[in-house]
Amino acid sequence: MIQSKFMKIFSVLAYHTFFDNNKCNCLHFIPDNKTENILQKSGFRINTVSNGFEVFYSAAAPIINMLDHIYKTTSQDYFEFNIKSSNQNFVLFTALPINWLGQIIYSSQNSKNNNGNIDLIETLETKESNPFLGQLKIYFEDLKKYLNNPDSVVYEINFKARETQWQYYIINKNAVLLNNPAITEKGNIQFEGPDEVTIQTGEQALLFTSTNKQMALSEKPKYKFDLININGTKELNQKNTNSKIIIKSLPIPDVSRMKVIQNSQGSQAASPMYIYL
Predict the structure, then answer these.
(1) Of 3, 186, 187, 270, which alpha carbon lies 20 to 30 A from 125's?
(2) Does pLDDT of 144 surpass 50?
(3) Sign (positive/negative) of CA torsion 32, 46, 157, 220?
């Protein structure tokens, strides 16, 4: 717990549309060695919160004087943090380029950043391997612009969930009667099919695909689809009292099971789901 004598200087908060409350609680911001030494020796403290961290200051010297002193004595004019994810699937469920390998770089000096609760805009660097997901630099000159305000500076990092084509493979192991199988519509989301396909195990399956709309991955279900059997020829968006529900509330994608498909737009992410009857 940070004591009241400490003054909050700035915060960094991460948000992600994948999570139910939008708070990204799987990212950890770790000061690099030089920043860690500066923080410890200059009266700073870090308080970790669920989706980021806060930096407090408690030395006798005014904060602007202290920042100037740090630069004069260390030649460093920024705080640097390495970003690590505790969720191994972060890159899969985040809207990043397909098959991208590298680091996500954030800087308070990026000209694309938005003011207010400052939205930090990422820069993607391509690297074959790196122990950290990303890097964050908060420059002293940028902090000074806001230190006269009554509230501390709040930097925000915002991620969007990856959108994928959903693919339901229905494997009818028990010969369930399926005269006219379909997947229910939700709004403007429709599933095409079924197409008869052979899956990797050599089993026959009926494939339904959400070809007209990609859907965002999510921590908790945002869409609920049913596998039904339609008796008659009515369209799905018409009332059909003869439809029978085969499976209610089909599963949502497992984010670790993403695959890449090729279509007229190029590479596209797809989420295969295998349903055994």
Answers:
(1) 270
(2) yes
(3) positive
